[in-house]
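On clarity, I found the account of how folds are encoded harder to follow than it need be. What matters is that the chain and its backbone geometry are given together, residue for residue. For the editor and my fellow referees, an illustration may be useful. For illustration, here is how one protein appears when written out as sequence plus structure tokens:

___
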Amino acid sequence: MLEVVKQGLWLCQFYPEADRQVVEYGCWLHDVVHPCVGYEKEDHNIASAVLAREFLRSIDFDKTKLEKVIHCIEAHRTSRGPDPETIEAKIVFSADNLSHFTQFDYLVERKNLEFALKKVKRDIAHPFMLPEALERAKKLSLEIEKKFNVKIL
């Protein structure tokens, strides 16, 4: 999660109109359901949004920002949720995808090389990736290709 937060805040520098607090909370909470037992992994974005809503309400989070954070969480996985419609949601989406490149070694260790490659190939081709994230992902892809003797681009 920390890597997603780092990438999200890095992307905020290119989009001054983005609400940094919404981005930061969206990044921290986008996968909050992962440690929980008894949820559908395919719908983790929706389950994470439910838990995040409860948490944000419990800390009296600004109600106007709460729904923006929830949209970021729901939209970070577009194959099973809404498309990211706000700049904040696009940043969280891009930061999550970009973290797969910055933490490629971890993905390989956690799953395997084939899984990690499939994930980053999908991520780099996604139309919702912000240009700055895409540029960084392409640079990281070259490093990954060299280190693992594979082809991404």
Summary: The chain has one domain: 2-148. The chain has a mean pLDDT of 92. DSSP finds eight helices and no strands in the chain.
